[in-house]
Fold these 2 entries.
Entry 1:
Amino acid sequence: MKILICISNVPDTTTKIKFVNNNTAFDIAGVQWIINPWDELALTRALEIKDAQPGIIENITVVNVGLIDSEPTIRKALAIGADAAIRINAEPKDTFFVASQIAEVVRKESFDIVICGIESSDYNGAALGGMLSEMLDLPSVSAVSHLDVVNGAVELKREIDGGQETVATQLPFIAIIQKGIAKDARIPSMRGIMTAKSKPLTAVEPIAADLLTEFVGFDLPKPKAACKKIDPDNVRELVNLLHNEAKLI
Amino acid sequence: MSVLVYTENWDGKFKKVTFELVSYAQEIAKKLGTSVVALSIGNVNDEQLKALGNYGATKVLNVQDDKLKWLNNQAYTSVVAQAVAKENANVIIFAHNNSGKAIASRLSVRLKAGLATGATAVPSSFDPFTVTKKVFTSKALGNIVIKTPVRIITLLQNAFGLIESKVEVAVEAFQPEVKDSELKTVVKEVNKITGKILLTDAEIVVSGGRGMKGPENWGPIEELAALLGAGTACSRPVSDEGWRPHDEHTGQTGKVIAPNLYFACGISGAIQHLGGISGSKCIVAINKDPDAPIFEAADYGIVGDVLKVLPELIAAVKELKAQ
Ligand SMILES: Cc1cc2nc3c(=O)[nH]c(=O)nc-3n(C[C@H](O)[C@H](O)[C@H](O)COP(=O)(O)OP(=O)(O)OC[C@H]3O[C@@H](n4cnc5c(N)ncnc54)[C@H](O)[C@@H]3O)c2cc1C
């Protein structure tokens, strides 16, 4: 079985968000870049399956649409354990454009399972997996919180309101995963970091594709009024405020 | 032209978000001089379907087909696409939740219609068609222009609210074609709790963090929630430890919610947690550490031991309810 994992190169989750150029572009000064948290969990889970059942998963490839500055993040995925990486040399400006690029990769080299995170933590598009599956005319299962391969078949659970569904699917398919898929993301070992240097990272040029959307500006939320502190010995006052001032209970 | 809404029901009743979506669609339809059509898939009774008229839907397409018993992304996308064609819809509205995201993204490709996900308001401009949406996990807002003639939006829950505007509503049976070739996924088993308040629908949420010390201390959280008709939530380590189920996990990697009132009990307020709750209209924090970042996000705060404060809070709420 071959698995493809789509990874997005995003600012560290603790980054203070700022904008430049008259609020039209994200300020990348001093930003640390990481693998999008869900994508990292997806990679972790794929590796867990590969390790638990030797021989079942022959290859785990990661793909990223990004310029050369996303290579350290891609190398990290290789250090964690991916076998190969593909970088499509383009700025990931619009999800439809990004999906078009990755669809082309899948058309050329077939994969049994393609995994995407439920969203990218930068622009929160939450659409790549769905778009990709429609472009490839493949089934997709979203909000997947459990993924396993048992006797050559894929076992899946997806989150629904107030519970879970167990889902069976034909292969190939696209899994759009969320948290729960793996507990903690794997961190690269020293050996992993060394071997990553010799693993294939292929850069390819993008195909022509449309951009259906465009960001034209950004805003930061208005600062909040200071918190009203209530004496811990007078909890009644809180209820009073919530009832009479906030009128919420 | 029309504005089409993808509705969602839970055990045959529309989720609150559905009425919000219709209210939102009605606001857009007014600006475009068109009307709102709602699409319902599943077993929903006539009274429920007609209730969509209270928020401005003039027509409801009612799809009942056993093949569509479970959410199937591919087949559902086809159904919505057929409804779009039938109603000549040029704006399609979904909820920004698991099923909304799953179908909206596929539909975007099927119709080659630009998609704006996680919208927080009605479009700020219709030419160019510009939508404000959350970015960087609610740490900022982005203005995104959709460049295609047909547009798809997923609305962040509770960002718009409910607006009643009663209109005459016609319910029409709709039988779209469902191809077997699009039914490649099958649901084998369902495990769900019924009767629980949906976290994303809850007006009030009581949430606990690691400061609650252990699952055995959740009694007061549940009691307070029951008293207030609230949903229960938790921070990520709490669900990771298995103290609470995963579907209660709120934050950047969990559920994003925007209730009117959010109680953070023993939650430090890490930036990743705030990403999931900062849309709340009012936040109450109970934490023993006066420097906990949660107090920066909170409207009301008590610096104290949550295990002592909660029982007193419950007693005070009971007093209020008894008045
Ligand atoms: C990539 C990534 C994604 C993440 N996503 C999420 C997410 O989606 N949601 C999320 O919640 N977290 C997320 N986290 C984790 C986040 O960084 C924090 O670790 C987590 O939110 C902390 O949970 P907590 O507040 O329950 O626990 P802690 O940080 O341990 O805080 C416990 C708090 O309880 C207080 N306390 C202790 N005892 C008492 C007492 N007796 N009375 C009153 N107060 C008390 C303490 O003062 C402290 O402030 C993520 C982290 C990463 C790296």
Entry 2:
Amino acid sequence: MKTGIGVFIAAFAALGASWAGFVLAPALQLGGTKVTTVLNSTDAYPVQRPGEAALGLQVYRANGCAACHTQQVQQDGTSFEVVLTGAGKDPVSVSNLAAGLKLTGLTKEAADAAAKSLADAGGKTETHLSGTGADISRGWGSRHSVAVDFLYDAPVQPGSLRAGPDLTNIGARAADANWQLVHLYAPRAIVKDSTMPSFAYLFEVRPATGSAEALKLPAGFAAPAGSEVVPTPAAKQLAAYLLSLHADAPLYEAPYSQLAKP
Amino acid sequence: MSEDNQKNCGGNSPGEPAATRSNAPMWIIVATLTLLFLGGVYFDRHSGWFNPRVYAPYQSADQLEAYQPKSGAAAAFAKGKGVYESVCGICHGADGLGKPGMAPPLAGSEWVITKGYNRLSHVPLEGLNGAISVEGKDWTMAMAAMGAALPDDDLAAVLTYIRGSWGNKAGEVTGDEIKKIRADLGKNPAPATSDQLKAMPE
């Protein structure tokens, strides 16, 4: 074949280019990701999941939760807010000035301008940054997810399809192990029309022993009289994992400012 | 099928199509490569030149840096904590209680919770030499100008932090003031003594 070498080179180049784009470039870009610190603090981020939660990651993976749930919050934009924290020597004119200015939902430029005009009048201000976007207004997080959020997870479970809510911060949203277990055992006991499958096989129905672990189920979902529903170790690990899902700390690469603690 | 066609399908007939070099016009090649290059540049530009810390909605490392929440008491305080723990904490302790034989306490120290912070700022900017009484105890040691190398804002944040932590409740320190005090001191000032400090306005 006269063109054999040419075909080989073309095929090699095509495969090589996709390898470079999908494997080499991401590895060069993010392969060196390491522990960082929470913005404006010395606290390390992220922290390793506790042992039980780390095992729970494998249960999450084995049950295909990532088929319906993502763990990646998207952020579309930023919004600034200027807060007057001190009115200076001439409080009346500063607060009049502040009342006349738009101080929320600003772009960076507008926020800087507003802060400057208040500072010129003698007031003290703080500027706060928050993320905006559909996911953030749904309450799924405060900022977009970044690579370091997944540092200790192997394999990572970012998911790609959202039949159910994003779980990036479910540990903060529903921080109750019992709620998690009841929801896993009988999603419809909590959300009437939930389409999430029941993971009842992660639980054991056994003759009642009065165990403290027995789920407190609402009427209609309760175990038959004289028996009780207790979580298996896998269910407990999964619940521990869900409670450990909390990737919302402000970071350099994903900044937002929390209001000053009084 | 016409006879012509039959002939063309045959073995060595002259009409057989062969893979040959076809000449694409040069300008198409140049235009395509230019477009590819410009597209690549656009892509890089808007994804922070592949900087691993730049994510949407930020478009460049500079923009990300400019958007960092810097102002605000909480931010300054948290930053001050970070600087304190890496620069001063080794001697004065993370709890501000000082360490015997190393450094006097900052928590509750009359040198720290002064009304103004002029006097206090001189300690890290100039260093401190000789006897000093802190909370009724005498220390005779020396502290180098630990704050001289810090940027104004960082030093202000540290001083804000030590004035507002561990039960201390003195006011905030601004970078602009530190800048002025530093400018008045000039380069490499001699370490202060506690008597010199006392003579300064608070």
